[in-house]
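hey can u run this one w/ glutamine bound, need the structure tokens asap thx
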Amino acid sequence: MDLLKASFKDIAGAVQGKKVSAREVTKFFFDRAEKLDPKLNSYIQLNDKALDEASSLDARIVKGENVGPLAGVPFGIKDMFCTKGLKTTAGSKILANFVPPYDSTVVERLKKSGVTIIGKLNQDEFAMGSSNETSAFGAVKNPWNTDCVPGGSSGGSAAAQASRLCAGTVGTDTGGSIRQPASFCGIVGVKPTYGRISRYGIVAYASSLDQAGPMVSTVEDAALSLEVMCGHDERDATTSQRQVPRFSQNLKEDLKGLKIGLMKEYMTGSGLHADVQKTVQAAIDTVKARGAEIVEVSVPLTEYAVPMYYLIAASECSSNLARYDGVKYGHRAQFESLGGVDLEDFYKKTRGEGFGKEVKRRIMLGTYCLSSGYYDAYYNKACQVRRLMRNQYDDAFKKCDIILSPVTTSPAFRLGDRISDPLAMYLNDIFTVSTNLAGLPGMSVPFGMSADGLPIGVQLTAHHFEEQKMLNAGFALEQSSSVKAKVPHVY
Ligand code: GLN
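ok here u go:
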């Protein structure tokens, strides 16, 4: 079996059928990560217990146990997910030595289905960023061109997956952090409907927007991972009670009868890189050829999506990040003696040392938006417009099943290019944030290549809980993708 090309089904079938051991598979990816990752910086930490965990899985298989649909599939986990006994930093100095006493629900469910954990993946600090340059553990590089960013905030997941330094990864998406890096690195990234996947044990950024999802090599692997990850969790009251479909078994590439919407606001082309435009056009031609009907839809309030998002995300983060005070856990500033140090000095020094520049910017912006006198003008207003935009999406989905659009305005940009201009960085998210604001499922499917040899994804968005339709459209596009199954070897 060529492990660089093997699907989850291939690996799990071979491991469960004792044709290869989970230990051998894990060792293959672990060694690869150890050897190649220094060039990418996609891992914050490798799991030194990975091989032992794989061996215990093998022992259970020898005893005749069925260890699950992802038997022996090695995953890298974004460092936002709590992993029992394994450091979880959220890319921040303030959590640099935090070892959680429990697993997040996502990790628990992956483990229960047979996954082994190779290590924890790099990310923007607290998932705030679009380029993976804000991590306290250094920037991640794009494996297709190491002078370029992998996209953020799940840049470690995207880079590691693209170069197969693990077989699968998970990321989180608050405003595009699964889809954008998936597009920049040529992998499949899915953000399901808000409420499909439990947020329990995921470091909180902006709770009304955060959602986890798979970042993997194929749509089938994404479908299979979703089956494992999705579903009600009593520890997260926002999770849905709905039945989780057998996504992977229902995949079909025939799009007859499917209506694909092109959003007027996203298709005007202004500011869109020519290679992205070409890729989206090729995707439209492909879905048409596969039987889909193209219709025009409009969601006018997406014009305000970026300001709405940055007001809401910053407000919620300022509240969520108040817990990092150096008292209960995480980084604590050192003082010669605590005599004469008041609580305010203690907080200031601890938080001043522990948080990076971008996180501080968001906390300040959010605190301002939530302060009395400004709450109604900013946070509340943004929430009201959010609701109206969601209604407009409901109307748009009366006319179509899926909305097809670009993921980003350009292919991966160069490291250092936008990091000193926050506004330019925020505008990267123009096509992705409205999906989170409306709670919709969205995905990025690798489809085209830029003239400079960088992958470009296409974004598909569906109505709430319509992941199956979205995955099917993604599956259809994947068949004609020019990025499919190519592992970059440039670094
Ligand atoms: N780039 C956006 C931000 O910085 C989205 C991040 C995310 O989805 N986690 O907030």
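The CA atoms of residues 266 and 375 lie 30 Å apart. anyway lmk if its weird
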